[in-house]
Give the backbone structure.
Amino acid sequence: MIDINPTDGDGVSDLRVVTEKMKTTKSQKISDEIRKMELFSAADDVVVSAFSNRININTYKDRQTLFMSGDPCDTIYIVISGGIYLYFISEEGNEVIFSELQPGDAVGEIEFALNYRHSSNAVICGTTRLLEIDRKTFNELSAIPHVSSYLIRTIARKLHRTMMFAEGMALYPLETRLARLLLNLGAAHGRSTSDGILIEKPISQSRMGQLINASRPRINAQLQAWKSERLIGVLQHRIVIFNKRSLQIISRHSDPAA
């Protein structure tokens, strides 16, 4: 055990050495982690080393609130694993999810660019690890060309999802919105089996309702109808898509995963 008596010069020196080693180990772990990410995929060792000391990686629990609408935005979050639901509260008091962020996606970049507060609520989906960048570090990173390209792609993906959500809400009935949801879940979390596409991510009917702004009874009625028509099935509490083509027709979208 190290004696950290402040009157003991050697003890203080030993403590500093241990502290520096801990910082170096943490920095190296972060460096190894961020090298795998799209944001730093084209960065050289100098850039990675320089920013690894200024970036944090934290783990959050399922259903933990990340921020609320109106909160100051002082951090940009990039999903390493797990996910984030962005949602707003309807006039009826219901949570309506308009975007699900997956590994590689970011949140906070738009607010940083416009110097706005958060305009939506964010809740963690499953155990999630996030890369966290403060405003000063973000501004320096934004000057690097490939980082700017990454940010443009993340904003474009988010805009596309939001437009698809708005289109579905404004123009299409529940069955179309639900078909699109199942096909998107199949594209993101599906595995091909002899029966069809097994959606390995469990999702409740209540959560489906939040994602397409529909009540649980209506979701249940439509799922039961599709089960009787053999479009879908349920295997160990997970949905199996038996007839992808039929769902694509109902969704009015040729390639929902695009």
Summary: The chain is about 45% helix and 25% strand. The first helix runs from residue 9 to 34. The CA atoms of residues 171 and 236 lie 34 Å apart.
